[in-house]
Fold these 3 entries.
Entry 1:
Amino acid sequence: MRAHEGEQVGVVERGRPLDESRGAEPRAAGSDLADLARSEMSLRRFLHGLPGVDQVGAEARAAGLATRSIKTTAKLWAIDTAISMIDLTTLEGADTAGKVRSLCGKAVRPDPADPTVPPVAAVCVYPDLVPVARTTLGQSPVKVASVATAFPSGRASLAVKLADVADAVRSGADEVDMVIDRGAFLSGHYGLVLDEVRAVKEACGRAHLKVILETGELATYDNVRRASWIAMIGGADFIKTSTGKVTPAATLPVALVMLEAVRDFADVSGSVVGVKVAGGIRTTKDAIRYLVVVNEVAGEAWLGPDRFRIGASSLLNDLLMQRSKQQRGAYAGSQDFSVE
């Protein structure tokens, strides 16, 4: 990803006001953020007044953080924390009710032989399979999440998108993962993107909203930052990297930029928004790298499933194998855990 030509760039530092870089608009706070949506021009001026992202700096910092090691005594904590953050996901055309029931069982008891393993955060499925997940999970602490708004393309009318959301929520979804209209965003129609996020948030009712940016299609880190702010101003409870259907999906530099955005949004507005990374996170080493970035960029307060999630399918088994190694000194075999 690259910065826009002609833009002065610099990685945002913690607590740095928005108006201290490149002549940005005065720092907006609280209800002032809501006022930005009153005109396309004011929203555009604010978004393009955000500090630009130093591509080299962001990628170098992410690479440096990826080399951090975790002490052996902390690794079990990190593994259990990562397990508790997983949105265990199946989003395939061949998904069946039986597969979803099996996934839900694994979500509640990841290792049937070890009740000390924490449950995952949520199970994520297509809207038509939400009733199956809801019935299977019952009163367990595992949430039911559903993709919506014409996932993964987002190419549908607003009426269809809202009907998709309403169906998922009516069927029992606790969380909804929507996709933004990347075409509208890349065409500079920021107000349209914001209006859709707000409309979906309203349609969610009691359900939490995760807004998928599909960062692999946004081309620049500056666009990732701007899309993050649009989603947060629109009422997102989480901002999410990707659908997992586009390459590249989640990357450490993109996560770093999004974590800076939620940190700065909290400083400005007082509202806390979480981050979800999804796509290509398959190993314990990958997961721990993200935990390090979360801690170093957003802070320890984000190290929990209420503020950070990992969308994955195969990651859980690797975490379980590494957990076995930490506890017993030997790896469990992959055949010891179910494969969904």
Entry 2:
Amino acid sequence: MTENSETVSLEGLTFTTLKLDLKDHIFTITLSRPEAKNAINPVMSNELIYALDYARQERNIRVVILAAEGDVFCAGGDLRSMSGKAGDGPVSNVPKRGETDDISLRLRHLNKPVIARIQGPVLAGALLLVCNSTHAYAADHAHFSAPEIKRGIWPFMVMASLFRVMNKRQGLDFIMRGERLTASEAEKNGLINKAVPADDLDATVSKIAAQLASLAPGTMQIGLAAYNEQEDMAFDPALPLLRARLEECLKSDDAKEGIAAFLEKRQPNWD
């Protein structure tokens, strides 16, 4: 993974395509280009990578929510910028930390819960945000599509993550014909956890985020890292790896606190 290991700070930075909010251990990253259907241009790509790096390093951040302004969650890659016709816009002073494909890697290796809050349509490269989140909840009027084939393009970068959440036959049909999936169909095919009435979306996401934020943050990171390590391993070599991660977990402060709280019949304190 292309990653800069230096400590990052938000101080003095101007994010021009995102809005960031941290409350109760929940870090909300909101796509804020509604006039462009939240299409991912190079500035948004870099700002997302930076925000995710910040989320990874901060123990105080236990859950990340990916949200969006406007009627569209995200229209995928900005075709105008891809064609070399990017227009002028607000200047971002967020340091460069990676390329667009690094968004998927940052999400996948964040090793913290990430909830995609999908209030509207998800198109093309935006599927990377959904597929690489650990959870995804959508308003029931939202729809999902990979329309690249209709523009003479193939969704190459989407495939790596798409086929880890959808079965191959449904996933291939999805990208080969470029047709929409309704939120209900996306739920049935494993693309999202659940489709809910639009009026219930905020409450649903808030409930799941609060529950995840209340759980052992260090153990969550160890567990998600182990999940990613063993995902593509054969069964036999996966077991020694998972045994080693279990031993690491049992020695952790979170496990010690959780066991002590159980024996003392109190709520654990993860701070």
Entry 3:
Amino acid sequence: MRSAATWGVASVISTFLLAAMLAPAALCQTPAAGAPAPPANTGSAPGGQATPGQTAPGQSDSAQPNSPDELPTAQAPSSDDQGSMFVFKKQVEEVVLHATVVDEQGHLITGLDKSAFSVTQNGTPEPITSFRREDVPVEIGIVVDNSGSMRDKRQQVNDAVLNLIRASNSQDQVFVVNFGQNPYLDQDFTSDVNLLQAALHQVSAKGSTALYDAIVASAAHLENNSLLSKKVLLVITDGQDNMSQETLQEASRKLQQANGPTLYAIGLLGSGLRGEGREALQHLASSTGGVAYFPDSLDQVDNITRTVAHDIRSQYILAYKPRNQNVKPQYQTLQVQAHAPGYGKLTVRTRSGYYPPEGNH
């Protein structure tokens, strides 16, 4: 039986963060039948990952940029350091953007260089100080609707999600949240496909749809895990929110913190997914640089998840230091454009803005 405890409703963020930092095993992690029980809390996150404030195996915490004006670059593990993860080191004041570029036919464009891009913040051009176009490991939160209307859809959804995981970088760190009235963390960060498969089958398929609560809690969990800087949420639902304490505005603000996650959404056919619910998913996805998909049938979901995996692995990473480091703690609008000889009109998908960290003013 799954533990009765959940990521609280009235205090979903604070409860979630505290539990994530102090007791990973208490986060409603329920092993599937035959799966190993979670280890006792030793101060480390599941799978040997470093908790916030710790250092991953083989990773030095003393690496610093060569000079205050030089952004540190990504560091890949050396051949004799198999335990290290690719980490995009960053200074507090920089903004990191993950950008997907498509042409007028919607085809991914992956061969551009730094000179093709321009970034503006609040209408002011910002010089790009770091640029990469590599497949880097990602932290992914899989957030799946567990309400009653999903009962007949879950097997195909689970198969499609597993195909996404298999098509992703083998060093990705993935967690699974099943939600109905409350969100359950059924598997914390891991690269083990078998553990993720077991978590996806923790299905009760009953209750209401607290979508925004699940998104806020999952975004907080990503934020609290600092090993990898590239973060993604994949949300799958067939209904609109009807139970959350959090609002759409609060969920949107949580997602749009500086260097927050990219959200992809799949809205399945269902009587509960009306215009308002579709618009909410579209807003949450597009504002973070992701995409909301609304397939006509379940048979299309597998192709969608494979497309998402390819999208994630084909992104550019751009970083810049805002000219004004004393901006007010209000929403900062962003625009990224791409132009290159030999291409027609290019569209860049990335976040539309962010809220500066408190204390940056």
